[in-house]
Design brief:
Elements: H1 13-24, H2 33-44, H3 50-56, H4 61-85, H5 92-99, H6 102-135, H7 146-165, H8 168-202
Helix pairs in contact: 2-8, 5-6, 6-7
């Protein structure tokens, strides 16, 4: 005698989305358009490459245009599409989880975490160099001092983790502050370039 045993069908995408939305209902939406713009400025714009850009001159414009056409615009289109399709708390982690499985989502989050650690370690080195240059010749010993590098990188990591644990209520202001400082730096660099160009022209 053959009996029909009930089979459990996998949950649909709509059901999974509703479950994520139910769990996310307790979260407060902290980021607005202004915060997201400043965050993109922090991640995309920087002053590290300004010297190289000045040295390369107009020839680099081709590569910037290629990067915009082949990377930034397609990336923006994909993010806009997925955000409209699945406007869920968790962003790219939830997209990978719903589209593939928990393991893929975990690996994605793990890679983002490792990427963050590597980026922060590089920023720590830059901050140490900037502090040494700002102090002047008296701080030349800092450039090759491994202990100072370790202390600054560790302090930076601890501060960033502490801000992250407080959530976006505090974390977004760290990003906003960094984005605003970058805008001021770029304004000053452009002003200095214009002043230098005019002074040379007057001579």
């Amino acid at each position: 005698m053959i009996t029909n045993t009930p089979t459990t069908l996998p949950p649909s995408l709509a059901e999974l989305e509703r479950e994520v939305e139910r769990r996310s209902a307790v979260f407060k939406k902290e980021l607005g358009l202004f915060d997201l713009v400043l965050t993109q400025i922090v991640f995309v714009v920087g002053t590290i490459w300004v010297g190289w850009a000045a040295k390369l001159g107009d020839h680099q414009m081709v590569y910037w245009l290629l990067a915009i056409l082949t990377f930034y615009l397609p990336l923006a289109a994909v993010v806009i599409f997925l955000n409209r399709l699945m406007p869920l708390e968790g962003g790219v982690y939830q997209w990978a989880k719903l589209a593939f499985n928990d393991f893929v989502a975990f690996m994605l989050a793990w890679n983002l975490w490792i990427f963050g650690i590597l980026v922060m370690s590089g920023i720590g080195l830059i901050i140490k160099k900037n502090i040494a240059y700002a102090i002047g010749p008296r701080a030349d010993w800092m450039h090759e001092n491994k202990l100072m590098t370790t202390l600054i990188c560790t302090l930076l990591m601890v501060l960033m983790i502490a801000a992250s644990r407080r959530g976006l209520t505090l974390g977004k202001w760290v990003q906003n502050f960094g984005g605003a400082l970058l805008l001021f730096d770029l304004r000053d660099l452009n002003s200095a370039a214009v002043y230098y160009s005019r002074s040379r022209h007057d001579c």
